[in-house]
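Technical annex B. To support the medicinal chemistry partners, we prepared a structural model of the target in complex with LP7C6HRI, based solely on the information shown next.
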Amino acid sequence: MNEPRLMNERRPLRDIIPQDDLVLLTCSEMAAADSAAIAAGTPGTELMEAAGAAVAGTVVERYRRQPVVVLCGPGNNGGDGFVVARRLHAAGWPVRLALLGSLAALKGDAARAAHLWKRPVESISAHLLDGRPLVIDALFGAGLTRPVEGAAADILARVEALGLPVVAVDVPTGLHGDTGAVLGRSIKAALTVTFFRPKPGHFSVEGRRLCGEIRVADIGIPEAVLGGIRPKLWKNDPRLWATLLRRDDVDDHKYKRGHLTVLGGASSTGAARLAALAGRRIGAGLVSIAAPRSALAVYQGAEPGNLVVESDGDEAFAQLLADERRNAVLIGPGSGRNERTRQAALAALKADRATVLDADAVTVFADRPSALFDAVSGPVLMTPHAGEFARLFPDLVAMPSKVERARAAARRSGATILLKGPDTVVAAPDGRAIINVHASPALATAGSGDVLAGIAGGLMAQGMAPLAAGAAGAWIHGEAAYRFGRAGMIAEDLIDCLPEALGAAMN
Ligand SMILES: NC(=O)C1=CN([C@@H]2O[C@H](COP(=O)(O)OP(=O)(O)OC[C@H]3O[C@@H](n4cnc5c(N)ncnc54)[C@H](O)[C@@H]3O)[C@@H](O)[C@H]2O)[C@H](O)CC1
Ligand SMILES: [K+]
């Protein structure tokens, strides 16, 4: 029987398959797309006209005709606003337009758009809101560089106090397009119309709270411009990795689907057991728990499907990994912040195994992160939550962008970082990153992280590269919670919903 050989061949790990329509562009990449479109023959004025037309068209589509006030800022976001106002007026809507700053200060495309508006330009004042109009927020967009204050902040506060409906142009004013942070004050929109591709900021926790429904309008920027930009950020979706889940080998069998070894702790055995179950449910061929002698009986009595192997003492785990069929390792859930965990993690990295380091396996290195980073050379996925991240990368916490925080940590550690949260970011050392918002608040339950780590470990056992395993794991984890779909979910429920979630990912 030649199975063991199959386990030894180091097949290339299967990695994500980039999808252009899932790309997210930063403000500067968006400006580059603009410039490329203009260089390819589409005047900036046409882009602005198309942007304003897209907003006006969406408003007409979504709202009954009613009084509208368009709040325009001093730049091209405001320029878009002039186009929106002109088009809504032409469609018979009662429109008022107010400008922050002076007409004379407008430049370029915005000045041209303002020139085409032949009706009054008012100044920003609370009286604009008499009659409870629909508000078009064209104050600031991709050019926001500092906190919103003064008249702009005042009018937004007034809009909010009156509870008026808001449609945001590109991004709600005050939301930073790249970091998704709020500078000064912002405004909650019912609908945000952005252009060509969304921005990372649209999907931050604040971004999702403030943008409302997000519409991405085609404004005539050719897809080909992406070739020159070479974006490295995508919104998570099964289309990035679902084909990697397919089991096309006709002679598929458990040895080909990898062997995930989970380090079991002595005290809280539930975490490792949950992770092991998740690894099996997601399709790993074999999953075993390396248990200390003192907890052997507990693990053996728990789930018959989990192989349990004794692994006591610091060197024991390294000896286990002498068996190359153990091609993937998960350390952390419930394993304790102790020397055994540290040594097991270093043994897995030294043995160049596909390794997931979660929870205790991350924080046990907090005193000397370099000891961990220096040992990373192969496929490693770290899955910290914000607190664990801060212990390992304290100096990165101040970075305003979660994507950039995760990317910096990945570059520094050499591992792929899955930085958990309602907006989980998975970032590889080469800069590629994926934002996952396919998640439910119900996931904030004890043990949920153990399940996620087990899913990712099970996928890496089957040959998925860390970025793909992290993205697929985060999405499937979220889908399982949606599938459970009712209050009172506990981590074990996620395990039972994994087959449906996996099925949803593959359809
Ligand atoms: N392809 C596209 O994405 C297109 C985008 N368009 C629109 O253009 C804006 C970006 O325009 P820009 O002039 O660069 O910046 P803003 O209009 O957002 O800001 C104007 C200006 O304001 C200054 N500023 C920044 N922050 C503040 C602040 N807190 N207080 C006061 N002043 C501030 C800063 O100098 C900015 O330059 C984009 O959002 C789209 O709506 C194109 O119209 C069409 C193609
Ligand atoms: K805006």
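Notes passed to the chemistry partners:
The longest strand covers residues 286-291.
Residues 1-8 have pLDDT under 50 and may be disordered.
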